[in-house]
Amino acid sequence: MSRSTKRLTAALLAAGFIAGAVALDHVTSAAAQDGGDIVRASFNANGSVNVPENWRTWVFVGAPLTPNALNGGKAAFPEYHNVYIEPSAFAHWARTGEWADGTQFVKELVLIREGQDCDPETAACFESSGQGYFQGEFAGLELKVRDAERFADEPGNWAYFSFGHQPEPYAATATAFPTESCNACHEANAADDFVFTQYYPVLRAAKP
Ligand code: HEC
Fold it and tell me: What number does the ligand 1 atom closest to the CA of 158 have?
């Protein structure tokens, strides 16, 4: 092979490789857009949902906090609300700015750390980084799922579940709450299609 033929062969090979990669990328994103690649919650024959597995390895999006000290001594949920989204649903959001069918969010409640160095009135603790609130123990788990087929009658097709407002172990299964208990407040107040992205900087930053 002459030098110029070799160069031409190399160029053609590279072009073929790039074309192949572009084609593959196209196939992947087309599959993702119809929600076909979304990891779904598992349901039982009676319609209850199973507690998710490994939700603490999902994408962590934010941790709102409503402490007792700022809520007349008794907040409905005095814990941190650690919110996670299942990773395939996060990837879909980052690509499209939409919650795919099958999207799952969990909210895990985590008590404010208590200890000797904490103020009994405000519950704020003195730690090496300063005075404030720090996370203690796990204290509850909630889930929301979008499923157009299963929850066709729910606004936005979202259903809401609780595996208990207590320390672990959480319940193994849960049944969906009535619309007024959960979904109505989300529909009225959440920034993005029933999800409170106004409190989740990770989701705002990823929105295309
Ligand atoms: C009065 C309003 C209100 C009601 C009622 C409500 N929520 Fe929420 N929910 C919020 C707010 C505000 C957030 C944002 C994070 C936070 O502050 O906890 C949230 C966040 C969530 C999230 C994280 C994903 C998201 O949509 O932002 C889940 C999961 C969740 N709630 C489940 C439930 C369940 C289960 C119920 C019913 C038992 C419920 N919620 C009832 C206001 C509400």
Answer: 26
Ligand 1 within 6 A of CB of 196: yes
Residue 5 pLDDT exceeds 70: no
Q: Cα angle vertex 50, ends 44, 54, to 5°?
A: 145
Q: Ligand 1: which atom is nearest the Cα of residue 162?
A: 35
Q: State both tokens at 140.
A: 């509850």
Residue nearest to atom 19 of ligand 1 (CA): 196
Is 199 near ligand 1, meaning CB less than 6 Å away?
Answer: yes
Cβ neighbours of residue 73 closer than 8 Å, sequence gap 6 or more: none
163-179 pLDDT, tens per residue? 999 999 999 999 999 99
Nearest Cα to Cα of residue 105 among 119, 122, 86: 86
The encoded tokens of residue 143 equal: 């889930």
Task: Please identify which residue in the block is written with the tokens 């160069």.
Answer: 7
